[in-house]
């Protein structure tokens, strides 16, 4: 584009912008003129109303005066003819009554004037009684007629009070009239000024070729010209509206195309992230499966060989399977589908209790400082998962400091606004933060810190699931995670956990991976119903229960379990959580309604969204599990149920 074209476009754009601004100003001026004219008309209406009230008051006063004068002549000459003084008195008094009613209608909207007119009406009625007595006596022609009564009526205060009330009404209306006249002059002046401004603007916008000399033209001509120019502006605005509509449609189409391109880009990024996640999982699982398959193959080949060598290969296979189960739990924690053991926890006490473990894990060259608030609120979380999260953060801090530095673990109460940290909801939280004096993280690393399998450590020194697991745990617990890091200074990772509002029932989870059991407890002869949709898991569970001297019966769905309960009773139900058609918690709710004394043990490796709350109050066992872990879980569930029944009794 040449400089001339750019200058032309700039001038054209400037002219269009100026025309648009002038149009908006013109519309605003038209609105102001309309409002000023309406205010002026209102003031004029009030002024006319005041004139009408004042004129009516004067007419009423004159009518009352003529009526009393006619009555005076009547009591003196007792002329009762149609044209006589008596008829004039009666006609004028009725006219005064009509005028009084008209006055009441006129002052209906003014409370003060309405009160004055009410008082005037009272005085009018009282004066009518006084003068009516004289008129009746004159009509009867008794004695001196109505002269004494008329004379007595003229000496009362009713007549002067009546005149005084009329004077007050007239004076008040004159004050209102003066105020209305001032408002009329004010709004008339404002309307004239706004009309003058509107005329100037209309001439400038519509008649660019006219000079300033035409501005002094009479107001009427300016108004006519302004109306003509308003029509022209309406046409211009209509044309401009069409242009803007076309431009809007073009922009909307461009926005749709851009949104589609961004969606394709986001999908490509998601697929790349899924590819990285899948590759990381496949790599780690291949390593672990290699240990499992290799160990089982070697053990199978040496079944007839030395027992110690066979046990060595089986132990290696078990270790690989255990590591695979741990990796699965980390992935479930990242996906916020890991079954939790929520309990009311005091963060300060939990951190203080980890001191020995941290010292042994971190090493002697790193100084650990714990700063916990004495009034820290309690939280309702899985204490084991919280310990793991703090321990993971401490290990990351140790690696960032290369084994030398200071590690600070701090707990404090905070109140967060909605969205202040990530997607956190507004409310009260306990902040558990781990700070180090290590190398820090650049912004590009912080942006990817929570991605699974992303790590900056050397090969073999980290899986990249630590922070992603912490992220999943915090989100699943209703909280959030934040990172604050400066390269060369250090990093602070904060876990925000919602404050526990009240005591809540716990989900008691059996420690599947724990190896502290010394013996396998059992309750021989107990009748157990196994509800599992996977036939291999169902067969393995039944076989393990039979080895433990239980009497298991297996079925593959919740509906089958309900039908079995109709034919016989069971001491314990071992159920999977996620099953087709009817979930484990749904089945248990229906069974508990009919058999409230039945013990329940849930077995799961995944808890779907919304299912975690249904597990509260029951025993929970993670998959995969050993026979020993199953024995402990079954015995705990049976003993717990019998204990609860005893307490109820």
UniProtKB/TrEMBL annotation:
<protein>
    <recommendedName>
        <fullName>histidine kinase</fullName>
        <ecNumber>2.7.13.3</ecNumber>
    </recommendedName>
</protein>
<keyword id="KW-0472">Membrane</keyword>
<dbReference type="InterPro" id="IPR004358">
    <property type="entry name" value="Sig_transdc_His_kin-like_C"/>
</dbReference>
<dbReference type="InterPro" id="IPR001789">
    <property type="entry name" value="Sig_transdc_resp-reg_receiver"/>
</dbReference>
<dbReference type="Pfam" id="PF00072">
    <property type="entry name" value="Response_reg"/>
</dbReference>
<keyword id="KW-1133">Transmembrane helix</keyword>
<feature type="modified residue" description="4-aspartylphosphate">
    <location>
        <position position="576"/>
    </location>
</feature>
<feature type="transmembrane region" description="Helical">
    <location>
        <begin position="15"/>
        <end position="36"/>
    </location>
</feature>
<dbReference type="InterPro" id="IPR011006">
    <property type="entry name" value="CheY-like_superfamily"/>
</dbReference>
<dbReference type="InterPro" id="IPR036097">
    <property type="entry name" value="HisK_dim/P_sf"/>
</dbReference>
<keyword id="KW-0597">Phosphoprotein</keyword>
<feature type="domain" description="Response regulatory">
    <location>
        <begin position="527"/>
        <end position="638"/>
    </location>
</feature>
<keyword id="KW-0812">Transmembrane</keyword>
<dbReference type="InterPro" id="IPR005467">
    <property type="entry name" value="His_kinase_dom"/>
</dbReference>
<dbReference type="InterPro" id="IPR003661">
    <property type="entry name" value="HisK_dim/P_dom"/>
</dbReference>
<dbReference type="Pfam" id="PF02518">
    <property type="entry name" value="HATPase_c"/>
</dbReference>
<dbReference type="InterPro" id="IPR003594">
    <property type="entry name" value="HATPase_dom"/>
</dbReference>
<feature type="transmembrane region" description="Helical">
    <location>
        <begin position="197"/>
        <end position="220"/>
    </location>
</feature>
<feature type="domain" description="Histidine kinase">
    <location>
        <begin position="280"/>
        <end position="501"/>
    </location>
</feature>
<dbReference type="InterPro" id="IPR036890">
    <property type="entry name" value="HATPase_C_sf"/>
</dbReference>
């Amino acid at each position: 584009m040449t400089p001339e074209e750019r200058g032309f476009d700039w001038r054209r754009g400037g002219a269009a912008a100026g025309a648009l601004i002038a149009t908006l100003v013109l519309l605003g001026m038209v609105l102001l003129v309309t409002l000023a004219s309406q205010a002026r008309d209102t003031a004029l209406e009030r002024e006319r109303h005041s004139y009408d009230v004042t004129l009516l008051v004067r007419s009423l006063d004159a009518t009352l005066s003529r009526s009393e004068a006619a009555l005076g002549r009547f009591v003196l000459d007792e002329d009762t003819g149609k044209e006589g003084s008596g008829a004039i008195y009666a006609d004028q008094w009725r006219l005064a009554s009509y005028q009084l009613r008209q006055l009441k209608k006129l002052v209906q909207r003014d409370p003060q004037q309405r009160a004055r007119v009410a008082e005037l009406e009272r005085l009018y009625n009282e004066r009518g009684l006084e003068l009516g007595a004289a008129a009746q006596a004159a009509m009867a022609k008794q004695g001196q007629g109505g002269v004494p009564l008329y004379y007595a009526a003229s000496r009362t205060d009713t007549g002067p009070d009546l005149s005084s009330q009329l004077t007050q009404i007239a004076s008040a209306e004159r004050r209102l009239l003066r105020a209305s006249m001032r408002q009329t002059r004010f709004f008339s002046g404002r309307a004239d000024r706004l009309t003058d401004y509107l005329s100037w603007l209309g001439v400038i916008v519509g008649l660019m070729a006219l000079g300033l000399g035409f501005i002094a033209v009479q107001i009427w001509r300016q108004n006519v010209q302004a109306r003509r120019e308003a029509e022209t502006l309406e046409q211009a605005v209509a044309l401009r509206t069409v242009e803007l509509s076309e431009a809007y449609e073009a922009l909307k189409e461009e926005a749709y195309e851009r949104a589609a391109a961004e969606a394709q880009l986001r999908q490509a990024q998601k697929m790349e992230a899924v590819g990285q996640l899948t590759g990381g999982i496949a790599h780690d699982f291949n390593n672990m499966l290699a240990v499992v398959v290799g160990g089982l193959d070697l053990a199978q080949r040496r079944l007839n060989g030395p027992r110690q060598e066979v046990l060595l290969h089986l132990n290696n296979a078990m270790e690989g399977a255990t590591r695979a189960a741990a990796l699965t739990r980390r992935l479930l924690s990242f996906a916020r589908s890991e079954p939790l053991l929520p309990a009311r926890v005091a963060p300060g006490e939990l951190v203080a209790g980890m001191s020995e473990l941290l010292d042994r894990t971190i090493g002697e060259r790193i100084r650990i400082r714990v700063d916990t608030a004495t009034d820290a609120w309690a939280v309702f979380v899985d204490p084991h998962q919280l310990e793991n999260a703090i321990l993971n953060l401490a290990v990351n801090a140790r690696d960032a400091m290369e084994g030398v530095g200071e590690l600070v673990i701090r707990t404090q109460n905070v109140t967060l606004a909605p969205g202040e940290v990530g997607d956190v909801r507004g409310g009260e939280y306990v902040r558990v933060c781990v700070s180090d004096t290590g190398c820090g993280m650049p912004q590009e690393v912080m942006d990817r810190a929570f991605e699974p399998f992303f790590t900056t450590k050397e090969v073999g020194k980290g899986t990249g699931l630590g922070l992603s697991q912490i992220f999943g745990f915090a989100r699943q617990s209703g909280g959030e995670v934040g990172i604050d890091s400066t390269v060369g200074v250090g990093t602070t990772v904060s876990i925000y956990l919602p404050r526990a509002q009240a005591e809540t029932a716990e989900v008691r989870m059996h420690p599947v991976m724990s190896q502290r059991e010394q013996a396998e407890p059992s309750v021989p002869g107990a009748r157990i119903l196994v509800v599992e949709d996977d036939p291999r898991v169902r067969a393995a569970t039944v076989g393990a229960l039979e080895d433990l001297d239980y009497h298991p019966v297996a079925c593959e769905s919740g509906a089958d379990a309900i039908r079995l309960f109709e034919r016989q009773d069971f001491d314990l139900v071992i159920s999977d959580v996620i099953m087709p058609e009817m979930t484990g918690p749904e089945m248990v709710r229906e069974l508990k309604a009919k058999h409230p004394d039945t013990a329940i043990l849930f077995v799961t490796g995944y808890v779907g969204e919304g299912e975690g709350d249904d597990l509260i109050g029951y025993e929970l066992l993670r998959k995969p599990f050993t026979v020993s872990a199953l024995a402990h879980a079954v015995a705990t569930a049976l003993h717990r149920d019998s204990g609860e029944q005893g307490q109820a009794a």
